Amino acid sequence: MTALIRASNVQKSFGPLHVLKGIDLEIARGEVLAIIGPSGSGKSTFLRCMNFLEEYDHGEIWLGDELVGYRQKPNGTRVKQKPEHIAKIRARMGMVFQNFNLFPHMSVLDNVIEGPTIVQRRPRDEAVAQAKVLLDRVGLSSKIDVYPETLSGGQQQRAAIARALAMNPEVMLFDEPTSALDPELVGEVLDVMRALAAEGMTMVVVTHEMGFARDVADRVMMMDNGNRIEIDTPQKIFTAPSHPRTAEFLQRVLR
């Protein structure tokens, strides 16, 4: 399978704190990758570097044949891309955050059509028709005209997934999408994500939901202290991890 995302020696520091210490990774088109590891291991930072919400300091991240966030000058140095180019790259990657980030002053429908109509300049009628299909797909067809504050956390996150899908992304990035939810609402969001995976959507999921990682992911990557510790199939990771740090982590979170 062709790699859709390629990361090579990706490094990121916040002042003296070296958060990513040289991450290498290839993600195939149609693959579901789960990223696990303890808090502070660099998982979310790496995800945010993928769509340049965080500027990585060293290395390269490619989406298809485009370098994310930078362009190479003839002399070999690189410079940051113009904002409009970065926006085009981001539009190819749907991003779902921990805390929904819906616009509170907009209805659910208006939240979903904002990107297609404003960023992609698609006709409103076309965007509305697509939004209704997507909201039905995530089980929110009856909530089109309500405002986010009237929704449960699970419903807000499903609306956020529909909003990301409305941009017709090539890959969906999920940053701990269930961590802010009450336990009884987690399942409804994971069900939507399982359906996306079954349809062949390329997905990168930072998650503490080990059952999802085990059952849905094609591969699981373990991170710790800014490093990629190991990456393998869920069966290998969860039954016979090759690194003692992975075994230690799983022993703690699965007991």
Please give a structural write-up.
Helix 3 (108-119) packs parallel to helix 5 (153-165) and helix 5 packs parallel to helix 6 (183-198). The protein has helices at residues 43-50, 83-91, 108-119, 124-137, 153-165, 183-198, 210-216, 234-239, 244-254, and strands at residues 3-14, 17-28, 32-36, 58-63, 66-67, 70-72, 78-80, 93-96, 171-175, 202-206, 219-224, 227-232. The protein is 38% helix and 27% strand. Strand 9, helix 6 and strand 10 form a beta-alpha-beta unit. With 255 residues, the protein is an alpha/beta fold. The relative contact order is 0.16. The strands form three sheets. A six-stranded mixed beta sheet has the order 8-9-10-3-11-12, with helices on both faces. Strands 2-1-4-5 form a four-stranded antiparallel beta sheet, covered by helices on one side. The chain has nine helices and twelve strands. It is globular and about 50 Å long. The longest helix has 16 residues, at 183-198.
Secondary-structure topology with pairs:
Blueprint: E1 3-14, E2 17-28, E3 32-36, H1 43-50, E4 58-63, E5 66-67, E6 70-72, E7 78-80, H2 83-91, E8 93-96, H3 108-119, H4 124-137, H5 153-165, E9 171-175, H6 183-198, E10 202-206, H7 210-216, E11 219-224, E12 227-232, H8 234-239, H9 244-254
Parallel strand pairs: 3-10, 3-11, 8-9, 9-10
Antiparallel strand pairs: 1-2, 1-4, 4-5, 6-7, 11-12
Helix pairs in contact: 3-4, 3-5, 4-5, 5-6
Short account of what is shown:
This protein has 255 residues and is an alpha/beta fold. It has helices at 43-50, 83-91, 108-119, 124-137, 153-165, 183-198, 210-216, 234-239, 244-254, and strands at residues 3-14, 17-28, 32-36, 58-63, 66-67, 70-72, 78-80, 93-96, 171-175, 202-206, 219-224, 227-232. Strand 4 and strand 5 (66-67) form a beta hairpin.
